Every structure is written in structure tokens, then in C-alpha cells.
Amino acid sequence: MAISVPEILAAYDHTAPLSEASTIPAPWYVDARIADLENQTVFSKTWQMVGRVDQVEKTGQFVTANVAGEPIVVVRGNDGMLRGFYNVCRHHAAAVMTEPCGQASILHCPYHGWNYGLDGSLKGMPEFEGVKNFKREENGLVPLKAETWEKFVFVNLDPASVPLAEFLGGLVKRVAPLGVSKLHYFDSRTYDIACNWKVFIDNYLDGGYHVPHLHKGLNSVLDYKQYTIENEDRFCLQSSPMVASDEDTATGATRKGDRAWYFWQYPNLMINCYEGYMDTNLVLPIDVDHCRVIFDFYFADVSDGRRAYNEQSVAVGARVQDEDLGICEAVQRGLKSRAYGAGRLSARREAGEHLFHRLLAGDLKAGVQRAKVAAD
Ligand code: FES
Ligand SMILES: [Fe+2]
Q1: Is the CB of 89 under 6 A from ligand 1?
Q2: pLDDT band with cut points at 50, 70 and 90 for residue 115
Q3: How far apart are CA 319 and CA 155, in angstroms?
Q4: What's the 46 CA to ligand 1 centre distance in angstroms?
Q5: Is the CB of 94 under 6 A from ligand 1?
Q6: What's the 203 CA to ligand 2 centre distance in angstroms?
Q7: Residue nearest ligand 1's atom 3 by CA
Q8: Residue 72, ligand 1, Cβ within 6 A
Q9: Which of 10, 42, 157, 333 could make a disulfide contact with 38, Cβ separation 3.0–4.6 Å?
């Protein structure tokens, strides 16, 4: 008989200190039931980034996204309020807004033409005369929580969730001095990777362990021995002093400043900062074996005169990403091997992964417990 989900979860000891800890076991990365459980207990309950504040500054501007399998839309109202809704028409469930982002005066469903106001209220339904016991005021778009922090728009599907600032905790204070709200969005890159989303996060959170081996260019600008790893609340900050490099001119020219700052916020958002530079990485599970990673690049100066430099900087990021991609796919294949169960962690380097695995285990185990209580 196949091993049960509670058995899979019990195979990870979240109480072990870092020096004795193992990674979460291989089935967590390859069993579709764990991916389903993550959708219910992690992605449906945590704050998820869905767009940028600059996309929803003006009245009627909106962004759409998919969170834990749910279509959602966030829109700026006539009253200046930012509101989130399930992007699901109350008539026959079509997606009301079909573009990734845009601006509209009314939310118009393309299927049978129902119209909703920017506040989600149902305004009009063609050819609905004679329909009895239908209350228009009860058929607005279903709301969900939406908030912003720095340059980013977040939603949370859980009506009982804590506010965004409380969820982010100490991250708010640590990011504030970097002045990222003064940066400007430049461009995005999307990567579809044949690995579980957690493989990509693990790779990010190994405290620079893989950098000297896999990223020779990046390694040339980091003082690897001085790399620090701090865990707090639901985030990990990995940071390194920068050194001048003549080994790799493109990296040296585009990765500047005294320090590199690499923030990871549970579960799936990374924010990377150098002087005058930020990129965010949003890791979205597609299925148990695939994820999509969206990179958004921001710069202090996005004027035309700076375009070539900014493009070179994005290209440096893309090269690092390509180096990571092949390894992540190899790891996913290895996780399915009968030769692998779980691995040990470097106490010097891999504290971030340890935090990630413990937070995840906490959410998954609590979710199974809640389901059990509900069933009993
Ligand atoms: S599904 Fe939207 S109008 Fe029919
Ligand atoms: Fe990497």
C-alpha cells in the first residue's frame, strides 16, 4: 500500500537542531498529494505577491493572477482604494478580466456581458428581466484581502490571516534602509523549470554553498568567506560583502555596492539587492514536478541613456539563472531515485533551508491536523 500523507510528513523531524537536521524527505518534492496539501495550507493561507504597485496606481488599473489555483484580480477603485476579488463571474464562472494587467472603467465579463463596478458590485446583467428571487447586491465579485508593501501588491485567500505587515514581520524593518521604493521597474523574465518549487527555493537558501562551484562570475564579486545567514520570523537574509572584480567585467560592472542583500520571505518570494539594483523572484508551483519563476528587475535609473547598462545587468542575472536551472532539474530527477531519501545540511551554510523546511512542516502538519479534527 502506498505510504500515507501523515506518514510522509512524520518522516521529517522539525525539532532537530541544524547540526542534526536533515532536509525534508524526497516524497515531499515528488508526491502530488503533498503539492495539493501545500496549495490548501501554504499558498491559500500566506500573503502572495501578485503584482507591482506601479501597475495599480491609477483608478481602474488592475492586475490579474493565479494564487493556489484561484483566479484573482486586484483593482484600484474610484475612491482610491485597492481591492482584491476572485476573478470569477457570478453568472457562469468565466474570468471577468482576461488580461495580465490594464485599466478599465468597469469590470466587464466577456462571456454574457455582466458588468461589475471597480468596487466589485454587480452593476448590470443583459437580458435578465423576469428573473425572480435574484438579488443584485448579493452577486458582486467575491472579495479577498489585498495590501501593498514597498513596490509590491499582495493578496491573501484566507479571511482569517494576519495583516501583511505582521506576516512579513522583521523583513519590513530590514528592507526599509535599502530604499527599494525609489527604484523603478525595468523588465521581467519568466522561467519554466522542470523541478518542484521547493528545489528552486532550497537552491537559493543554501547560504552561497553552491556559488563558488556553479556561479564563477558571481563568485568573483562576493567575499564568499564573509557570507552571513540570518533567520528571523518568516524570512532569511543572506548577505555578503562585495569585492571589486576584474575577472568578470559584466558582473563587476553591474553588481555594485558594499554588500549584496538576498532576502527570502516564506514561502516563495526572494528580493535581491545591490546598489541601485533589485530583482524579485516569485516562485510559483505549476505541479509537483514543475514551477515557474518570475524575475522582475528594477533600477535606480531607467532613462533611455541607461538602457544598455540595464540590459547588460539583466543579462548577468539571466546567466546566473541558467546556471541554476540545469542543477535544479538534475536535483528533481535525483529526488525520484530509489538511491535518495533525504540529505544532511551544512551547519555553516544551510540554516536558511532549515528555516524553510521547519516553517513548511509546521504549516503542512497543522493543515493535516485541522482536517483530522474537522473529520472526527
Ligand atoms: S459568465 Fe460572466 S456574464 Fe456569463
Ligand atoms: Fe544559484
Answers
A1: yes
A2: very high
A3: 31
A4: 30
A5: yes
A6: 6
A7: 112
A8: no
A9: 42
Could you tell me if the CB of 141 is within 6 A of ligand 1? no
pLDDT for 232 equals 96
Q: Which of 299, 286, 318, 327 is CA-nearest to residue 204?
A: 327
Residues in contact with 7: Cβ distance below 8 Å, sequence separation at least 6, in sequence order: none
Whole-prediction pTM: 0.96
Q: What distance in Å separates the CA atoms of residue 162 and residue 195, rounded to the nearest whole number? A: 31
Tell me the CA–centroid distance for residue 256 and ligand 2, in Å: 18
* pLDDT tens per residue across span 120-130: 999 999 999 99
Q: What pLDDT, in 10s, does the model give residues 24-74?
A: 999 999 999 999 999 999 999 999 999 999 999 999 999 999 999 999 999
pLDDT at 249: 80
Residue 303 neighbours by CB under 8 Å, 6+ apart = none
Q: Where are the alpha helices (DSSP H) in the chain?
A: 5-10, 27-30, 32-38, 164-168, 171-175, 197-204, 211-214, 216-219, 249-254, 307-335, 351-375
Looking from the CA of residue 125, the nearest atom of ligand 1 is 3
73 phi, psi to nearest 5 deg: -140, 140
Is 182's C-beta closer than 6 angstroms to any atom of ligand 1? no
Question: For ligand 1, is residue 114 a contact (CB within 6 Å)?
Answer: yes
Looking at the CA of 214, name the nearest ligand. Answer: 2
Residue 112, ligand 1, Cβ within 6 A? yes
> Per residue in 162-212, pLDDT tens?
999 999 999 999 999 999 999 999 999 999 999 999 999 999 999 999 999
Residue 276 contacts residue 216 (beta carbons within 8 Å): no
Q: What is the pLDDT of residues 212-240, one digit of tens each?
A: 999 988 888 889 899 999 999 999 999 99
Q: Which atom of ligand 1 is nearest to the CA of 112?
A: 3
Query: What is the rounded distance in angstroms from the CA atom of residue 245 to the CA atom of residue 99?
Result: 43
CA distance 286 to 194: 10
